[in-house]
Amino acid sequence: MKIYYYLLFIVAALPAACAGAPKAPRDARSENFEVTSKYLDLGGTVYTYMDVEGDVEKAAALVNELVAVVDEIPPKYKARIDAVQIVKALGLTDIQAIGMSSYKNGDRYINKSFTKTTYPRTGLMQYFGGEPHPFEILQMAPENAILAYEGDVNMQAFLETLYGVMQDVADADVIADVNRHLDSPIVGAGMTYRQLISQLDTKIMGVVALDPTRRMKIPDTELEIPLVEAFIAVDNMGPLMDLLVMKAKELPVFSVWEDSQWQRIGVSEFLTEELLDYRPVLWRHKVTQRLYIATGSQFLEDRLKHKNALGESPGFKELAASVPVDKGNGLIYISPDVYNSVVGIVDDALAKESELTSVRKVVDVLASKVSPGMVWVSQNTHDGIYQVASASFSHKLTLLGSIYANQLYGITMLGAASKYIFQQAVMGALFNSFTPNPSPTPSMPEGNESPGNELEKNSGDGPASPSGSKKEMPEHVEEFLKKWQQEHPGDAI
């Protein structure tokens, strides 16, 4: 019986507790608050709400008043510039309210944000995609991924909105010039720029993973890091493959092959030794017209077979337990292993490069402030745009303008290392074998000169280089080029 009375007391007390918070007068309450608050959590570390319905239109009306009284603006432009009409066409008046909330969940925070909009959305607000759908990336990303991304991108609606505004405000000759460019063909692609824009209602996916067993040596150092594997996939971009295939067939450094389902571009065999274990590939799936760019064919094949999928791993499920990852329009995953990976790389480097001691200290300080890892999901609803994240910090940092910055330190460091590897190793492999070698360590071109310009200067087609005799080709390169010339008589390399 005591339990029964306790329950009665709790039920009776709940309305009184909820009624305890002071409320605005009924005739002054925001009409959008009730809908927005359904998507947020009241009572945690952060709760904020702002009704913005009508504010953008009011600001635009003020702009119209200012334009009307500025005599320096030519009358023909005054007649065309209607700021209210422009912001409506851009879809900025779709936004009605914005809210955020955060609450602590163990050593992490569950952060939510909601942007209430009209439905269906118009103008630039269509950029974020349409109806939510299951995330493919959770099956395509491996469980050892340190970064995974999937996002709907309606760039077609974005560009068409800007084009519509331009037609309202620009001169006729400007519009005619733009139309000529849009209707001109993309050489080799079999389509015009306007037709390409019509394909840009797309989806982008990407993954970065660290191989658990294979390592790669950074050129000109004693340092080794885990082999980085990655792919990017873009929907509706298949027609561009025709242009890329045409260009690839003109160069001996690429190979092209296809079957009933796939069209592929790869790097020729003779470059394998120079690309550290990398043989990048570009694949087109003929049925879906999706393009894949990957660091290697074996990695991409494994991902297409969904081997050891991220979404099935216990670590991901634990991190995403409070996030609606079943469907949505955008997802970002940053692995908790980012910190351990960075520490392992730094510790290995410290054993050989003592001047990096300060880097290790910085990593330790950053790691002490956060619980690594993040899962973020965005969903389109008929009420607006709903976003949920499991992160190591609350929306306090969001409100301060540091959106998720302290989660990205590991990715930034790995990105810097990848950039260094690409510049020093990959670019060196492509150009150093064919250019003079005046010093033991060839340097990349500086200033506004691209690697292509440097190659041209030293190939005999441009001004003679003062730097000396050409470096002798590696034997495997020379053999490949001889074979290629025999198979393509009369074609210059």
How would you characterize this protein structure?
Helices cover 38% and strands 22% of the residues. The protein is built from 18 helices and 15 strands. A 13-stranded antiparallel beta sheet has the order 1-2-3-15-14-13-4-7-8-12-11-10-9, sandwiched between helices. Helix 3 packs antiparallel against helix 5 (83-89), helix 13 (337-350) runs antiparallel to helix 14 and helix 13 crosses helix 16. The chain is globular. The model is unreliable at 1-19 and 402-471 (pLDDT under 50).
Residue stretches low in confidence (pLDDT < 50, at least 5 long) are 1-19, 402-471
Which of globular, elongated, flat, extended, rod-shaped describes the shape?
A: globular
SS elements, strand count? 15
Instruction: Please give the largest β-sheet.
Output: 13 strands, antiparallel
Based on CA atoms alone, the radius of gyration comes out at: 28 Å
Mean pLDDT: 77
Helix amount: 25-40%
State the end-to-end CA separation.
93 Å
List keywords for this structure.
two-stranded antiparallel ribbon, 18 helices, 38% helix, 493 residues, 13-stranded antiparallel sheet, alpha+beta
